[in-house]
Amino acid sequence: MSGLSGLREAWAQTGRPVRVASLGMWSAGGLGTVVGVVGDQLGWWDDRPFLTNLMSSLVGALFGIPLALIVLRRVTAVEGRRTERAEALHVARVTAERLAADLAPLCPDRRLAERAAGILRRLDDELLPGLADHRFGPALAEALTLWTEAVGLCDAGLRDAPSARDVLRDAEATWRHLRRDVAPRLRAHGVSWPSRVATDRVDRLLADVDAFLRDDPGEVRHLADAARRTLDERSIDPLVALYADEYAVLGGIREQVGSLSAGVAAVVALLATVEQLGPDLPTAHRNT
Question: Can you give the pTM of this predicted structure?
């Protein structure tokens, strides 16, 4: 049944000129068959073996050649689509790898960046919400110590903002190429890649990282310097001098911690998301 179905599909996809020629040849073959049968009955071929063979071969060719052409065109088309699909998947995989390579310089040491992200998350979620008093004490000292550690890890694990923006621009160009040129080519072969969720996530993370890199890094450095002096002097005077109001100290710290935490988390998440694009691609023989 599948064979007949395949032949019907092949016939439907065959061009009109070939179909007309095939019908003409099959008609001629049918006529030749009738002539051959009648000739057998009347004894036309009894003493003409060469003509008999020639007539039989001609009738067979009239039936077989159109069928062979249709099947061959079908097989060629299927193989062509399979080859095009494999090439599209190869281009997609290479582009995904290039995107990951473009973004890798944002984070020269992923391990340090992930440690910084963990410390900042703890500060943002646990320690700072529990600080109700801006005066110097063990709780504030712990928060400031972790802040200076996180800033040091960011300095070592992340690329500096000016050069990182150049890296991000190159990656954004590769991402646009992937979305506008590579992904539509895959969709034409029934492959939905990258997924809508992954696409939205990369778009959002690229925007978040861009916003993070546009922030003034001097504010982070100033708070880190003031935190070190505060820890050395065991007094919030350096922080008060930074924010010009002792009651603005905690708010200022929370703002800087939240901003840096979101930025570092966005960089780490972006790298992880982009690195997963390649493995998400199907193999050349499997659709999604």
Answer: 0.74
